[in-house]
Amino acid sequence: MTRYATALANPAATYRQIDLTGRTTGADPHRLVGLLYEEGVAALRAAACAAEGRQVQIKSERVSRATAILFALEAGLDFDKGGEVSRTLATFYHGIRQQVIHASLGSDPAPFREAAASLEEIGTAWASVRAS
Question: Please, which contacts does 101-104 make with residues 24 or more away whose CB atoms are closer than 8 Å?
Answer without folding.
Answer: 101/63, 101/67, 103/47, 103/51, 103/63, 104/47, 104/59, 104/60, 104/63
